[in-house]
Amino acid sequence: MGWLSDETGLEKTAANHVPLTPLSHLRRARDIFADHPAVVYGTHRKTYAEYYARCTRLASALAGLGVAPGDVVASVIPNLPAQAEAHFGVPACGAILNAINTRLDPGTIAYILAHGGAKVVLVDTAHLALVTQAIAEMDAPAPKLVEVPDPQAGYPATGAHLEYEDLLAQGDPGFDWIMPEDEWESIALNYTSGTTGRPKGVVYHHRGACLSTYAQVVSWRMVLHPKYLTIVPLFHCNGWCHTWMMPLLGGTVVCCRDITAKSIYDAIADEGVTHFGGAPIVLNAIVNARDAERRAFDHVVEVFTAGAPPPAATLRAIEPLGFNVTQVYGLTETYGPATECTWKAEWDDLPDEERYEIKARTGVMMPMIEESTVMDPDTMSQVPMDSTTQGEIMFRGNAVMKGYYKNPQATAEAFRGGYFHSGDLAIQHPDSYMKILDRSKDIIISGGENVSSVEVEGVLMMHPAISLCAVVARPDEKWGEVPCAFVELKDGATTTEDEVIAFARGKLAGFKTPKQVIFAELPKTSTGKIQKFELRKALTGS
């Protein structure tokens, strides 16, 4: 198929075939954008020439510590310059980066370090106690620890460990990067934050990471020199591959340690931030910011939001503030965003209610995905695109993980039938746009009727007093399950359980209306996702 009758002399050579890798972006930017700002964090301001030199020193120094190609280097660092440098410096010595969630417990971190076999771990000073406790709990050989202090945030070096800047000083600025010989080589190992059992290690290859950086430039309608704010943690799908993407455009990575409405507004006003990604809870924080936290700015900020479908009420509230939000969707297993709600001009003049409902769609596949659709997981057939029939979102393409590390059984199950099974339930519209309904585990079955917690949450978010909500199943003797809403109120707002239920009843069918409303602060992950399993535990005690 697709071959000429005589292909003699048309083989791959060093001249016409180079493995795809995001490392190439920074090597190119070193020369083309040498004097342009690459990474900014308070007083830390590095050009691309300096950024490349620091990443090179890191690669060399890690090799000096005994890190060989194929080894794993872990990091437990917030969104700081050292974490951005690790994304290039670690693979530049042929190693695989394992960026670990800073909010995990010591036992889980111990498991990840042992399972991944990390040889070195870079640790932010604020998380030293966490990691040293994790290392103490390990049965496997302990990694070498390198401390990454952050004096600007009040975390000076303890003096108890090799410090990051001293490590860099040991490196050779002339070190020759070890580029992949095969684009299927691994570049990153990311552990899913599973709610049951041990987290699974998702393995990324250089090809998928590189293609994701190209595709998202198109999806985000980017031009040269964007200023990108690191809201998405770099330990979450490697920050959706955005830090790898920035050198492609000569963009500036603006690091943000603490994600607050004030820090976001300050970064936009002071650094001219043009883009950031984040969960809907981040948008909510911007919408509900106090007057003292807001700053004026004169440009539109482009936002990718994912992690949960954004409520139409949130989209309606944030757009007039100067933010253009694009709903994207993906998983750790798809390098982050893999679908987008690509906007069509004919939707511009629709009434607000319809327009924002469309904006909240899960959308269509991004350019690096070969196929993304809604299928029946039992028959592996396409469900009717009738805006009603439910199925499971499935993916096929170059931005799907290699698989789960040391877990061939889970990998085979995830790839059953030649597609990656997302576990997310959705419908598909006649124009092929998908709309996620729920995680399969979050759907509520009440009296035989399926209730989408996402739909109920979207209605409750329209209530003027509600800042944030989550709906989960509560066991019920008569109906099996009924919806229960957990609610956070806006500052200074008041309402009652009866009033919230009456509000919902006016917009939803009776079986979809919450039967109980609990006012409480919602448990959240480091990326702003609400931990529904914790809410279910609160209801059932298990």
From TrEMBL:
Its EC number is 6.2.1.44. It is an enzyme of class 6 (ligase). It comes from the Bacteria. One of its GO terms (molecular function) is ligase activity. InterPro entries: AMP-bd_C (IPR025110), AMP-bd_C_sf (IPR045851), AMP-binding_CS (IPR020845), AMP-dep_synth/lig_dom (IPR000873), ANL_N_sf (IPR042099). Gene3D superfamilies: 3.30.300.30, N-terminal domain of ligase-like. Keywords: Fatty acid metabolism, Ligase, Lipid metabolism. It catalyses: 3-(methylsulfanyl)propanoate + ATP + CoA = 3-(methylsulfanyl)propanoyl-CoA + AMP + diphosphate. Belongs to the ATP-dependent AMP-binding enzyme family. This is 3-methylmercaptopropionyl-CoA ligase. It comes from Aquicoccus porphyridii.
